[in-house]
Amino acid sequence: MSRIKRLPDHLVNQIAAGEVVERPASVLKELLENAIDAGAGRVSVDLKDSGRRLLRVVDDGVGMTPEELELSLERHATSKIASEADLQQIRSLGFRGEALPAICAVSRFSLMSRARGAARGAIVKGEGGEIRQRGAVDCSEGTTVEIADLFFNTPARLKFLKSPHAELAAALRVATQLALAQPALHLRVTHNERVVLTAPKASSLSDRVGALLGYDLAGRLLEVKREERAVAVRGVVGPPALARGYRDDMILIVNGRPVRDTQLLQTLLEAYRPLLARDQFPVAVLALELPPTEVDVNVHPTKAWVRFRQPRLVQELVFAAVQEALRAPDVVSSPRPIATSGPAAEGAALPARDQPALFKEAPAGYAPSLFGAVVGQLQDTFVVAANEEEVFFVDQHVAHERVLFERLKADLATGPLPSQDLLFPLTLELGSASLALLEEWAPALTVLGFDVQGFGGATLLLRAVPALLKGEEPRRLLEALVDEVGSPPGTRAGYPRDSVGHGGAAPPLVDRALAFVACRAAIKAHAPLDREEMARLLADLSHTETPYFCPHGRPIVSRLSLREIKRELKRTW
Questions:
Q1: How much is the average pLDDT of 358-380?
Q2: What fold characterizes domain 9-201?
């Protein structure tokens, strides 16, 4: 008896689902791509419980006949390619014929469609990939797909889903990227019957960016436009002053398809060097157009990765186009903040030389530190201290960050942290994904001293910030907070991936937000300190629970053994 067996169709579909359906955002991506390929001009998306309980996509595309509707649930059944030659020049977003049967294999589904010109439509319903009901129905032209109880028959996959707000944020990122890639599409997304994203048909990419990411941001972006040897790159990039601490706003589009390409992203970053620090990332939406024969999209089942026939040409074109845009006048911001009217002036950051004193209280006695006596300061960044056995190099920024973190945590145990009201409340336009995360964090942010309120749509009203951070520019402060607390633990640039929490488990949200506040308020590198300030910092650090690592897990102290130094220098006394 043969040990090799042909797998049943329902199991094959579940295996395929493991490749293309990771979470509700994956389902939304595939269904939106199908709607776009069907020529839809308007698409409505309804989510319940972040798409886990229900994900409905309604389009006004060409629709399907009853025969096509049932055939669409079979693997590798597609209207988008018919021969090997078609595979070499793919123009549609979908083409593999795997996504819809894989999605229906792990959900309870309903498909309703009416082809253009047809008198009536058809509907099929089922679960686990099996059709249980079918029939004729009166409906409008186009297709409606409802996916309910996602992963109801694969509970192990259900356990890997993140919090509802995180899943909603992922779904909105998918919708935002596809809307940017398809400006002619009118897209509307609701969550639990509340509108969370609206993208009307746009005449230009700049208008689309304004509708999705904020018109204030769109007005400050730089146009990118360049074409060489049948390859064109168009789009917008932000000046260095708009840089983020995360990569989510670096969006690459190839022939109308949002893609991930490590080399292209690295090329984009290199075009900004040395205008950006290593832990900063630009705002950029770049759309590349090239002949379909010059790009292979059949690299991965999710179709998110592509391979170029001439990658060097594409990379050089992107590099030259972005650098040309960055040569515009006034791209690099003035090193000294310029006061303006309104809340930006109220919360403007201080120049480095005007940094406030490290300790505002009167000098007081304190116990000896773990690090001996202060020797001096190296490069205005490292406090050098020594005892009879060792020499210590203490990073003053991360040391002060640890001190402030534990002090704030102790203060928080007695009540909310002090806050500073802004002279003029500041309106902020954020992406819908960031807005969803901020809604989840609202209770924690309130006790930390932030006062953030909804102002309609994707606009927020910032009324107060923690008193320790009143010198920060409020808009950049909130953007940095979204980056710090919204990114997965351990992925903050410049810190070890497994460092956050330093015990294997991710720290709670309040601790991560507290670490952010402490980091922003801590004394910075390249700030001269007098000897008493250095001694006070080392004494306070000695009394913390974790004096050798900052809240993000970054090491604070480097040490050298005097015994080893003497041995190397052959000093015998």
A1: 71
A2: Heat Shock Protein 90 (3.30.565)
